[in-house]
Amino acid sequence: MNITIVTVGKLKEKYLKQGIEEYTKRLKSYAKMQLIEVADEKAPETLSEADMEIVKKKEADRILAKIAPDAYVIALAIDGKMKTSEEFAASIESLMTYGKSKIVFVIGGSLGLHMSVLQRANEKLSFSKMTFPHQLMKLVLVEQVYRGFRIIKGEPYHK
């Protein structure tokens, strides 16, 4: 199983880097994990709707360039489907069973994901109705992927 997480923006916070490195290391016995960061588009705090679309489109082009044509894409989005950890694990297991060996998770930047990325996605996943910093979401996602593999293998981590 090859899992890729594509995120917008460079991870700067040391504590987040350490957490992500820890779970990535733990995941090695279950799957090959690749973390890809694409540049975020520099933009002022206040943008018009049209300017926001331009920023999201530029970020989307960078994201889509990193996704293989045969990858199964899961976009993280507030309006996506919420799952329990067990349901998330079952989804991963189902993808493996049906030959989807390349899963790509996409986390957008501060403005979210452009429609072109959401259209490329095979599904949208939400961890909450709340908004989280996209860099923190990367850590949460890596931890949940690790937790999912522990659940799949019947290991006790999720208890």
Describe the structure.
Strands 2-1-4-3-5 form a 5-stranded parallel beta sheet. With 159 residues, it is α/β, with parallel strands linked by helices. It has a single domain (2-42, 50-153), classed as SPOUT methyltransferase, trefoil knot domain (Alpha/beta knot, 3-Layer(aba) Sandwich), CATH 3.40.1280.10. The chain contains 5 helices and 5 strands. Helix content is 43%, strand content 22%. The protein is globular, with a radius of gyration of 15 Å. Helix 3 (85-97) crosses helix 5.
From the 3D coordinates, which CATH architecture would you assign?
Answer: 3-Layer(aba) Sandwich
Helix coverage percent of residues? 40-55%
Number of domains: 1
CATH class placement: Alpha Beta
Strand content: 15-25%
Number of helices: 5
Q: What is the average per-residue confidence, as pLDDT, rounded to a whole number?
A: 94
The major β-sheet equals:
5 strands, parallel
The CATH homologous superfamily is named SPOUT methyltransferase, trefoil knot domain
How many runs of DSSP E, i.e. beta strands?
5
Silhouette:
globular
Distance between the termini: 24 Å
The succession of helices and strands, N to C, reads: EHEHEHEHEH
Unreliable stretches: none
State the strand order across the main sheet: 2-1-4-3-5
